[in-house]
Write a structure and sequence with these properties.
Layout (H helix, E strand, L loop, with lengths): L1 H14 L12 H15 L1 E2 L5 E2 L3 E6 L1 H6 L4 H19 L8 E6 L9 E5 L43 E4 L5 E4 L2 E6 L6 E2 L10 E6 L2 E6 L6 E3 L2 E2 L4 E2 L5 E4 L2 E7 L1
Parallel strand pairs: 3-4, 8-9
Antiparallel strand pairs: 1-2, 3-5, 6-7, 6-16, 8-10, 10-11, 11-14, 12-13, 12-15, 15-16
Length: 253
């Protein structure tokens, strides 16, 4: 059964990457099991007979428990996201777009407890800012020029993205909390159609407002501001990321 397979994955993670003792009773295994139960509970049939599930899962916990995961949060989000996607696929569920998992601090959740909220979040691409043209007019009096107003990007249906990527095509991609695979494979979260980009070239993890990038043993490597990425690289506003020769600009919101 898919549920047993994915749950065993959580158990293996707990015995391996997350095997250290935690300061509270809340464990990655407990979070994983809660996620699977939530997916099953939220499934609904649509008019086409598909079993539809939400595409966004927000794991809410106390500040105390989240602090206990602080050094492992990017890896935890990555593993939870991959496991949830695998479960959705194996169970034959349907979700609009890519399924994502994020962590949130909730002061109303007690220590050692976890709550899961779900949403069907629309994928919103942020258009480049448009600066309206200032038309000069001639008048007898000296009139101060009017500063152009740059409209703020529209928010997504669930929250403002902590960051935005501008791809080589000019497309702007919102980065919300969660795990993203970058590559030329059409199944990637962020697709870059460039022959110098590997099928699964790199990955981004957004957690607590910070975004890290790591290379996935790509052929042509990943660089930030011209420096090769080895391990996890924390991104800063204005950084230029090269996936092979494909150049991407990173902006924090």
């Amino acid at each position: 059964m898919a549920g047993n397979t994915v749950e065993r994955r959580f158990e293996n993670l707990f015995d391996g990457l997350f095997s250290r003792a935690f300061s509270s009773k809340l464990t990655p295994l407990q979070i994983g099991r809660k996620l699977l139960h939530t997916i099953d509970a939220e499934r609904t049939p649509d008019a086409q007979g598909r079993r539809v599930v939400p595409n966004r899962y927000v794991v809410q916990m106390s500040a105390y428990d989240r602090e206990g995961f602080a050094d492992l949060e990017p890896a935890l989000i990555q593993e939870l996201t991959q496991a949830v996607r695998e479960y959705v696929r194996q169970e034959g569920y349907h979700a609009e777009g890519k399924v994502r998992v994020a962590l949130r601090t909730n002061p109303d959740v007690r220590k050692g407890r976890v709550e899961i909220t779900t949403e069907n979040a629309d994928v919103v691409e942020m258009p480049p800012p448009v600066v309206p043209e200032v038309v000069a007019t001639t008048t007898a009096a000296n009139v101060e020029p009017v500063e152009p107003v740059v409209p703020k990007p529209a928010a997504s249906t669930f929250d403002l993205p902590p960051a935005v990527l501008t791809l080589p095509t000019g497309q702007r991609v919102s980065i919300h909390e969660g795990h993203y695979i970058v590559g030329r494979n059409l199944e990637c979260d962020i697709v870059i159609s460039d022959g110098n980009v590997s099928r699964q070239h790199a990955e981004l993890v957004c957690a607590a407002g910070d975004v890290i990038v790591r290379d996935r043993a790509s052929t042509n490597g990943t660089k930030v501001n011209g420096v090769a990425v080895h391990g996890d690289q924390l991104l800063q506003h204005g950084d230029v990321i090269n996936f092979g020769t494909a150049q991407v600009r990173f902006e924090k919101s």
